[in-house]
Amino acid sequence: MERVSGVCGAFVGATCAPRCSRAVMAARSCVVVPFARKRRARRCELVTMAAEGHSDGERTSLDLLHDAAVQKGSRRPRSKALTRALQAAERDRRSATARSGLRAPEGSYSLLYATGKEKVKRGSGSGQESKAERTASGYFVPAWLVAAGIRFTPDSRHAARGVVENSARSGLIELRFYGRYSWSEAARKLAFNFYRVKLRVGGATLIDRKLVDLQGRSQAEYFEQLEEERKLPFFIFFESNDDFAAARGRGGGLALWKRTSDV
Predict the structure, then answer these.
(1) Which of 26, 132, 163, 208 has its CA 20 to 30 A from that of 224?
(2) Which of these, 145, 134, 144, 139, lies nearest to 255 by C-alpha position?
(3) How far apart are CA 12 and CA 71, in angstroms?
(4) Which helix (H) or strand (E) holds 223?
(5) Using CA atoms, how far apart are residues 176 and 197, in angstroms rounded to an integer?
(6) CB-CB contact of 132 with 123 (8 Å)
(7) Torsion angle of alpha carbons 92, 94, 99, 103, nearest 10°?
(8) Alpha-carbon distances of 36 from 44, 166, 246, rounded to whole Å
């Protein structure tokens, strides 16, 4: 049986005032050193960001993810900061107190940011000084080039199961996959598979093809009766709210979607 996975193969107050004041003074001092070494120049840049209220260190991981979902252009967090925020939010969700209470993703989301599979980078020290760092290259999906979205529609009789649609649209061309999903609240796991694909150009459907032989069953019947969930593609969600959703896919990459009205 052919599997289709992933995203088309494939979510200041008074206490701050003294700190901000010091940051502004430090930022001003940076201006008089135009020919500083690269390291010092980068430090000046970070201090200036802090003075302007853009310091990532003073924000929680969910704050940064929220900013990425609602802000546009240069106001969004930088790629490396966003990747670290996704990793931190995932770690936080694993704690016993935060593990429960995450609701199933529902409705339409637009893919905003994605990373590749993480690599482990070892420190150069020895013993406790040698720390492993998990790094991954990420990218913002260029909305001007392609709109990638996903929609979850729960069944009326069984909220933990439903219809999933995954789409990619560029200009007049749209590729859309249709399938089924199941949600496990305890594991925060959404397993899915696609059974049909359509390719449209303008208002005309050029391709409407089955991806799996359903053996005379509906998609829902096939998914529930014949699919082996352990073999299916999946996302492990670590955040799902009114503004965005974030998850790690079976392939190891991280994804951030922003909520939208439709896909």
Answers:
(1) 208
(2) 139
(3) 18
(4) helix 219-225
(5) 6
(6) yes
(7) 80
(8) 9, 49, 39
Structure-block tokens of residue 34: 């135009």
pLDDT tens track for 240-262: 999 999 999 999 999 999 999 88
Structure token pair of residue 185: 């609240």
For residue 199, the cross-strand partners are 175, 207
The overall pTM is greater than 0.90: no
- Residue keyed to tokens 């995954």: 166
| Residue 195 CB partners (closer than 8 Å, separation 6+) | 178, 179, 180, 210, 211, 212, 214, 219, 222
Which tens digit of pLDDT belongs to each residue from 183-236? 999 999 999 999 999 999 998 999 999 999 999 999 999 999 999 999 999 999
